[in-house]
Design brief:
This protein is α/β, with parallel strands linked by helices and about 700 residues long. It folds into four domains: about 1-70 and about 95-140, no CATH class; about 185-365, Rossmann fold; about 370-440, Orthogonal Bundle (Helicase, Ruva Protein, domain 3), CATH 1.10.8; about 450-635, Peptidase M41 (Methane Monooxygenase Hydroxylase, Chain G, domain 1). The chain is built from 25 helices and 15 strands. The strands form three sheets. It has a six-stranded mixed beta sheet with strand order 5-7-8-9-6-10. Strands 13-11-12-15-14 form a five-stranded antiparallel beta sheet. The chain has a four-stranded mixed beta sheet with strand order 3-2-1-4. Helix 19 (about 505-525) runs antiparallel to helix 20 (about 535-550) and helix 20 packs across helix 22. The chain is elongated and about 140 Å long. The two termini are about 65 Å apart.
Length: about 700
């Protein structure tokens, strides 16, 4: 399209430009040719004044002597140069011996004067032995005005069409004048119809929305009793829990139009666009009522007013004001139900959350073990499963996973099965996919020195043994020193059941298990590495939460200090104070240090008493590079492991041998798969390289 527009502009320049070639001959020179009888014949176009002169042989010879570079094959051009077409009079001349010149007369009247023409004939006849001067006059034909204007009009229309096309694309298909139209998506047009059968693991949430469906299907049932259906339902919950799917299923069950739009689609670069799009959205909804309007991520436009950092006009606030009016203002809004989704309900404006706008708030949390099993059934309906796959077992081992996580887990398992040429998904595929989702893919080609391998083995063994002897710690599921993703090793533990609450003892044991790797390094290697930096970071965060958020400190009492870091709203909390004095801050630091010291001492005593188990597990890790939870329990109970098969043998020594001095130190990182407020998921304590934290010599 751009090339076509450039071509039109160039064509217009050629057609409508008044300039031509550079003038090579003066008007006085043309008159001199006639006065001296050097023109044997000429053709004059009366329309545009273009003249073609044919010189005599003597004049041609003189011209060649004056201009040595000139040849008789071409023409010396004047104002119209190469635009001269040729004479239609049939006047002939020997162009091989006579030069032909072209010129555009500024005023043809003087040359065509009868006296001048007669004098030029006489001069030519006198100098050329009575020969006659030949001339041909092309009459001027009148061209219609519309034909003259046609090229200009055509190019103007094409340029305007190109401009409109670019404005249409720029405004997202709405055109330059439709920038205020709402970018709403209709579920019927997208063909993505869903029902409550597609939603699993959210039975209570579906019951809340079932009333909406019944009202949309049978309004008279509620109107008879004077009941009013909620104007809006706000779905609150972590990402990936199925809030959007619930809204789509609600519309699919009711069989009414469903309009979806994102909160960020309202506000753009133009002032007033947000409010205009809100009005347009509700105008469309009212025309097709009863219907459902779904606003995803409503916190993009529904944040608290007056929280802007600048003092200027806030376009987002105008959009919110219009949304408040449309949801519950003077105008009637019957039959239009607004469903919105967000994971930051704490920053929404209070006027938006009041009854009459969003009458209900439905919390869509993480699914429990039964919900995860139902979700797995939905996602494995069209996937072949091997007989050894038990969905209940998978649901038990995926505590803390959302519906989106489970869908991703099943998809990764299907990809692994297809990669291995299997016709069905096996338990091994799902197990490996679970670890891959948590810690990343294995990197068996990474070179690991014997020194690093020994350090990693004792570090992970320290984590595992503290898990084994802590009463409330989750059982070990797998230990590995094979690099996986960004990690150089990991210890994975899985909860045996869903936990709705976390006790003080559980958090204390969690700190002990995090410090087990550092303690094992100190006991066996008599040195410590940067590998435990993330373990210390997580342990400190847990201790700080125990003191400042949960009131677990006996010295400071059941008092909450400060705000929740994850719920900070910059516009509201920028100038907020921390809420406690410097003396209390010093006591908080001392209490956190005391908790960490006690946990470190508990881990040291635990590993010192079971130092033989530490050596046994570390030796097995160095030999096998990976231990399952069952193999780890056999070693802890004093048993022996069967010999390794060829397929399970460690990597070749050639891949691991490298000069120890050339290898960078590695640090271990402890990461949780998920971190819900009241439910602990599977955890991974891993080792990753860190050149930044390497000790300097």
């Amino acid at each position: 399209m751009i090339i076509a527009l450039l071509g039109l502009i160039i064509m217009a320049f050629i057609l409508f430009s008044t300039g031509g070639d550079t003038q090579t001959m003066k008007y006085s020179e043309v008159i001199d040719y006639f006065e001296q009888g050097k023109v044997s014949e000429f053709v004059l176009n009366m329309k545009n004044g273009a003249m073609q002169l044919t010189l005599t042989e003597e004049a041609t010879q003189e011209l060649l002597e004056q201009q040595p570079g000139m040849t008789l094959g071409g023409q010396q051009t004047g104002a119209l140069g190469g635009l001269w077409g040729g004479s239609s009079s049939g006047a002939a001349s020997d162009t091989a011996k006579q030069a032909v010149l072209t010129y555009t007369l500024p005023y043809a009247g003087e040359l065509l004067d009868k006296d001048n023409l007669q004098r030029y004939r006489e001069i030519y006849a006198e100098k050329n032995g009575g020969a006659e001067l030949k001339m041909d006059l092309l009459p001027a034909t009148e061209t219609p005005v519309w034909l003259t204007m046609l090229p200009m009009l055509l190019i103007s229309v094409l340029l305007m069409a190109g401009f409109y096309y670019f404005m249409y694309k720029q405004s997202g298909g709405g055109g330059a004048m439709n920038v205020g139209r709402a970018k709403v998506k209709d579920q019927a047009e997208q063909g993505r119809k869903a029902t409550f059968k597609d939603v699993a693991g959210a039975d209570e949430e579906k019951e809340e929305l079932q009333e909406i469906v019944e009202f949309l299907k049978n309004q008279t049932k509620f109107n008879t009793l004077g009941a009013r259906i909620p104007h809006g339902v706000l779905l609150v919950g972590p990402p990936g829990t199925g809030k959007t799917l619930l809204a789509r299923a609600c519309a699919g069950e009711a069989g009414v139009p469903f309009y979806s739009i994102s909160g960020s689609d309202f506000v753009e670069m133009y002032v007033g666009v947000g409010a205009s799009r809100v009005r347009d959205l509700f105008d469309k909804a009212k025309k097709t009522a009863p219907c459902i309007v779904f606003i995803d991520e409503i916190d993009a436009v529904g944040r608290q007013r007056g929280a802007g950092l600048g003092g200027g006009h806030d376009e987002r606030e105008q959009t919110l004001n219009q949304l408040l009016v449309e949801m519950d203002g003077f105008g009637a809004n019957e039959g239009v139900i607004v469903i919105a989704a967000t994971n930051r309900a704490d920053i929404l404006d209070k006027a938006l959350l009041r009854p009459g706008r969003f009458d209900r708030q439905v919390y869509v949390g993480l699914p429990d073990i039964k919900g995860r099993e139902e979700i797995l059934k939905v996602h494995t309906r069209n996937k072949p499963l091997a007989p050894d796959v038990v969905l209940k077992t998978i649901a038990k081992s995926t505590a803390g996973f959302t519906g989106a996580d489970l869908e991703n887990l099943v998809n990764e398992a299907a990809l692994l099965a297809a990669k291995r040429g299997r016709k069905a998904i096996t338990e091994q595929d799902i197990e490996e996919a679970s670890i891959k989702v948590v810690a990343g893919p294995e990197k068996k080609s990474r070179v690991v020195t014997e020194r690093e391998k020994r350090l990693t083995s004792y570090h992970e063994a320290g984590h595992a043994i503290t898990h084994y002897y802590c009463e409330t710690a989750d059982p070990v599921h797998e230990i590995s020193i094979i690099p996986r993703g960004a990690a150089g090793g990991y210890t994975m533990s899985l909860p045996e059941e869903d936990k709705n609450y976390v006790t003080k003892k559980q958090m204390e044991d969690n700190i002990v298990t995090l410090l087990g790797g550092r303690v094992a390094e100190k006991l066996v290697l008599d040195d410590i590495s940067t590998g435990a930096s993330n373990d210390l970071e997580r342990a400190t965060a847990i201790a700080r939460s125990m003191v400042m958020r949960y009131g677990f400190s006996e010295r400071l009492g059941p008092v909450v200090y400060g705000n929740e870091p994850s719920e900070t709203f910059l516009g509201r909390d920028l100038s907020a104070g921390r809420g406690y004095s410097e003396t209390v801050a010093s006591e908080i630091d001392a209490e956190i240090r005391e908790m960490l010291d006690e946990a470190y001492e508990a881990a040291r005593v635990m590993l010192s008493e079971h130092i033989d188990k530490l050596h046994t597990v570390a030796k097995a890790l160095m030999e096998r590079e990976k231990l399952s939870g069952e193999e780890f329990r056999i070693l802890m109970e004093g048993g022996t492991l069967p010999p390794l098969d060829k397929d399970d043998a460690p990597r070749a020594d050639a891949e691991k041998a490298e000069d120890e001095k050339s290898s960078a130190p590695r640090r271990r990182v402890s990461v949780h798969v998920k971190e819900p407020a009241v439910q602990e998921p599977a955890s991974v304590q891993s080792e990753t390289p860190s050149a930044e934290e390497a000790p300097k010599e």
